[in-house]
Design brief:
Number of strands: 10
CATH superfamily: Glycoside hydrolase/deacetylase
Order of helices and strands: EEEHEHEHEHHEHEHEEHH
Number of helices: 9
Structural class: alpha/beta
Strand content: 5-15%
CATH topology: TIM Barrel
Distance between the termini: 47 Å
CATH architecture: Alpha-Beta Barrel
CATH class: Alpha Beta
């Protein structure tokens, strides 16, 4: 295990969706991609952690400790249990799955804007979602099950009442089905603003995950993740997760913010 500056870059939080060896959707990666990416992080000295634990412990991490990585999966595709779970188990990594709770009730096909185009096609089966029984298996193995709302809407477009229903209702559904606290939420499409973040805190979530296009500062209810997609080769993955690159991008982002505020 290598000793290097990764620990000083802070925690790493990744966002995946589906895992498939023959589905070329941007939100899907192959089993080979997932394994080589995670094995690379193991070689770099990262230790696996759940999303909520990474957020809770971020301020107390010492610069010399092994840097934590939270592997998160949005939407709760059934391929997570079938194909991702064996890989993460072999590496002794836990993960976090953010589930859209109304679909977990039936374990049926996931359907919302962004995945609907595969309905009725040759890859429709890839839209199969995890049921509560399957999610309980992952929870029993040490995985965190968080909320991805009730129906996967754009939260910023909802009224205050509908927003509260999506956030509070999904958290309560998770807790009823799993028999344990639901500590975290991931905003669908990465779509949030200050009102949404405040509503997540009000709903009782300890942490909330975003998926920004650029680099943003880490906040408990707006925690940025690095999205990993079908086109991400190992070389591209190494750049995306590089402590040096992350540090540079964060400094540039802060500089841009400073310039805007002084105009």
């Amino acid at each position: 295990m290598r000793k290097h500056s990764d620990a000083q870059a802070g925690p790493l939080v990744l966002c995946y969706h589906a895992v498939s060896d023959d589905w070329s959707a941007d939100i899907s990666i192959t089993t080979a991609q997932l394994r080589e990416q995670l094995e690379f992080l193991v070689e770099r000295g990262y230790r696996g952690a759940t999303f909520s634990d990474v957020v809770a412990s971020a301020r107390s991490e010492s610069s010399g400790s092994a840097p934590p990585v939270a592997v998160t999966f949005d939407d709760a595709f059934s391929s997570i249990l079938e194909r991702a779970y064996p890989i993460l188990s072999s590496l002794r990594f836990p993960a976090t799955v953010f589930v859209v709770t109304e679909f977990a009730e039936t374990g049926g096909l996931l359907q919302w804007s962004g995945v609907d185009q595969w309905l009725g096609g040759v890859h429709e089966a890839e839209l199969q979602g995890l049921s509560w029984a399957e999610l309980r298996r992952l929870a029993a193995a040490g995985w965190e099950i968080g909320s991805h709302t009730r129906t996967h809407p754009h939260l910023t477009q909802l009224s205050d009442d509908a927003l509260a229903s999506e956030l509070r209702g999904s958290r309560e559904a998770c807790q009823r089905a799993l028999g344990c606290p639901c500590r975290s939420v991931a905003y669908p499409y990465g779509d949030f603003d200050s009102r949404v973040a405040a509503a997540a805190a009000q709903a009782g979530y300890e942490a909330a995950a975003t998926l920004p296009a650029g680099v943003t500062d880490r906040k408990v209810h707006a925690w940025p993740r690095i999205g990993i997609y079908h086109h991400d080769s190992l070389a591209r993955f190494r750049v995306k997760t590089s402590p040096a690159v992350r540090g540079l991008r964060k400094r540039f982002a802060r500089l841009e913010t400073l310039v805007r505020t002084r105009r």
